[in-house]
Design goal:
By secondary structure, this protein is of the alpha/beta class. The protein has helices at 26-34, 53-68, 80-89, 101-105; strands at 2-4, 11-20, 40-51, 72-76, 96-98. Strand 2, helix 1 and strand 3 form a beta-alpha-beta unit. Helix 1 runs parallel beside helix 2 (53-68). The protein is globular.
Length: 112
């Protein structure tokens, strides 16, 4: 699910749910392709129970595209199993990660 955040022009929020793996990555791939004009992308993983390397690679590639275009991608609401995968792989170091989407969208959020 994709929603535009009205409070910040150019901010797009992607709400992820269920499992993100090789078999289910298509909708995220499509959504990321639709957000190429966003200045900032917040990926809300609060509904995501599982993410494998396919999902991780999609997010890392999206990050590279956004950074090259002067934008950024932030993560929020990662559940422990998903957060652990980002920690183990070192990918956590290249994203700003917030406790929840509200924190990510707050004007004074600093990332955790």
């Amino acid at each position: 699910m994709v929603r535009r955040h009205g409070g910040s022009p150019g901010t797009v929020v992607l709400l992820l749910s269920g499992e993100l793996d090789h078999d289910t990555a298509g909708p995220l791939r499509d959504a990321l392709g639709d957000t190429t004009a966003a200045a900032r992308l917040v990926v809300d993983g609060s509904g995501l129970r599982f993410c494998d390397s396919t999902g991780l690679n999609l997010l890392l590639r999206a990050r590279l595209r956004l950074v090259a275009a002067g934008g950024r991608i932030d993560l929020s609401g990662l559940r422990p199993p998903v957060a652990r995968m980002f920690e183990i792989t070192g990918a956590r170091l290249v994203f700003r990660v917030y406790e929840d989407a509200e924190s990510a969208l707050g004007e004074h959020g600093t990332g955790a």
